[in-house]
Amino acid sequence: MDDVFIGRIEVRPPLNDTERAHLATLGASGSTLRGTPTGRGDTSVPFAHLAWEACPSGCCLTWNGLEHGKHLAESLRFLVQHLFGPEARVAGHPAFSAFTCDHVLDGLVAARGRDGRTYVVEASRNRVSGRDGRPACAQGGDQRRGRARPRPANVIEFRPRRA
């Protein structure tokens, strides 16, 4: 089964032509986000390819699935901090003079990977948060590793061996 992605991130005001073109070029370049002018030498930048795409009008971003879902949050955070947010790193950079750096991102995208894990990213007024979940149990039961046999009633476990 291929990865499945649903949802979108709304962008207000919409991205302009230059911003959309840069996003498309960066996504098609094959280089990672650490290879961008603002990402070089920054260890907080994800070592991932950009898989966010803008719609033709620039009012929303969707995940194209070309990168693993675990990079949803960190790559969206990169877009806010480096390219589109009010204090973006490209602000004032001559090569990015057409970037307005005034965008607000809001929305939610969820992904279910081939490994069964679920990844969710949420943007709320440029604050990006992400989380992931374990795959569902094949039998539909509890996912925690349990004991093969229950302990007798007179046995108290003070410290599990896994601790």
Largest β-sheet summary: 6 strands, antiparallel
Structural class: alpha+beta
Q: Which strand-content bin applies to the residues? A: 15-25%
Taking all residues together, what is the mean pLDDT? Answer: 86
How are the strands of the largest sheet arranged?
2-3-1-4-5-6
Strand segment count: 6
Helical percentage = 10-25%
**Low-pLDDT regions:** none
Number of domains: 1
End-to-end span in angstroms?
Answer: 35 Å
Overall geometry comes to elongated
Order of H and E elements: EHEEHEEE
DSSP helical segment count: 2
Region (Disordered): 129-151
Task: Please specify the SSE layout and strand pairing.
Blueprint: E1 4-12, H1 17-28, E2 52-54, E3 60-63, H2 72-84, E4 104-112, E5 118-124, E6 127-133
Antiparallel strand pairs: 1-3, 1-4, 2-3, 4-5, 5-6
Region (Disordered): 129-151
